Amino acid sequence: MKPALGRGLNALIPEKGLKEIEVSLIKPGPEQPRKDFDKKGLQELAQSIKEKGVLQPVIVRKAEGGGYYLIAGERRWRAAKAAGLNKIPAIIKDADSSTALELALVENIQRDDLNPLEMAEAFKRLIEEYGYTQEELSKRVGKDRATIANYLRILNLPPGIKELIANDRISLGHAKAILSLPTKSLQTEVAREVVKRGLSVRETERLCAQKKTKKPAKAGKKREKDPNILALEEKLRQSLGTKVQIRHSGKKGRIEIEYYSLDELDRLLEILL
Fold it and tell me: Is the pTM of this model over 0.70?
């Protein structure tokens, strides 16, 4: 399988075998790496399909029990359904689920159809499940090795930041700058500030540089917090992926957990409840 990757999907798919298949007989493939589909973009594509038809066939494989699973072209299939088409041009590929996964990953990577987090997961799967090295992927999907490495690195970010990436709140460039920070709690703090202030990538890089060179407050000006409390705060920050402060006095106190969106609140509630 590996050598064909560099030539793209055309090297893996025969030119013959184009058929018109009923849209209702096709269903999304379980191997699909893409999770999010822009509604506005789908509407625009559906309108184009109404006017010009489906210009490029989808790729499918036969499903167990009848019908077909999509290997590539789910966006076109969804738009065709929205446009009211009964049939869609398709190439039927004789592929098992493993081969279908590889084809789906490569097709989406080469089309840049994935958000950065989905792209990172796709690279990870190709490396772990198919044994590709970063150098091989660089040659075969047309992206330099440093770019692939940066995609893979964002998988190490805290869950809250990965959610911001998936929701297109911060870009790969923002994520790359944030990764330079030494702790996950500081990474989360800066990511929230980036979103709140609408910072550009360059502004984020400057902010990260400031955070890394910021000197600790001089002793005596502020009462130092108990090291045990600081350790507990850090554990909570790591666990929750957001800024946490413990206000302790005597035998009582309070815990402050910060969130920056309703989605973030829902995420925290799921963890806490």
Answer: no
What are the pLDDT digits (tens) for 100-132? 766 767 766 766 567 888 888 888 888 887 788
User: Per-residue pLDDT tens for 135-152?
Assistant: 888 887 778 888 888 889
Q: Please check whether residues 20 and 82 belong to one and the same domain.
A: yes
Q: CA 245 from chain center: how many Å?
A: 29
**Tokens for 19?**
């058929």
Catalytic residue among 31, 74, 107, 264: 74
- The angle subtended at Cα 120 by Cα 194 and Cα 109, nearest 5°, is 115
Confidence of residue 216 (pLDDT cuts 50, 70, 90): low
44 is catalytic: no
| E-only strand ranges, the chain | 18-22, 26-27, 58-62, 68-72, 87-92, 244-249, 252-257
Torsion of CA 42, 147, 127, 122, to 10 degrees: -10
User: Regarding beta strands 18-22 and 58-62, do their DSSP bridges make them parallel or antiparallel, or are they unpaired?
Assistant: unpaired
Range of the domain at 64: 2-118
43 and 87 assigned to the same domain: yes
